[in-house]
């Protein structure tokens, strides 16, 4: 297992938090009552440009488990925060 990485979630921007993963644990450092969204793309695919397939994250932790490698993106709506990503 690799060391955890702290990723900055820029306000109102899709940020790639994990690349080509089949499993990950993402801990959102929530300091505001505003939502954080998550979506994914097949590894190497284009980044999201809108909220069409976004799902709201359950706090404080997101678990990613998939059979195919994916890129995971997060969107902090109205505020900036960080997420700890453990692969």
Structure write-up:
The chain has 87 residues and is an all-beta fold. The chain has one domain (5-78). 0% of the residues lie in helices and 60% in strands. It has no helices and six strands. The chain has strands spanning 5-9, 14-29, 36-42, 55-56, 61-76, 81-86. Strands 1-6-2-5-3-4 form a six-stranded antiparallel beta sheet, with no helix packed on it. The radius of gyration is 12 Å and the shape is globular. The chain starts with a strand and ends with a strand. The relative contact order is 0.46.
Per DSSP E runs of 2 or more residues, the count of β-strands stands at 6
Low-confidence stretches: none
The helix/strand series, from N terminus to C terminus, equals EEEEEE
**Structural class, from secondary structure content?**
mainly beta
Task: Report a brief summary of the structure.
By secondary structure, this protein is mainly beta. The protein has strands at 5-9, 14-29, 36-42, 55-56, 61-76, 81-86. The chain has one domain (5-78).
Topology, element by element:
Layout: E1 5-9, E2 14-29, E3 36-42, E4 55-56, E5 61-76, E6 81-86
Name some characteristics of this structure:
0% helix, 87 residues, 60% strand, six-stranded antiparallel sheet, single chain, mainly beta
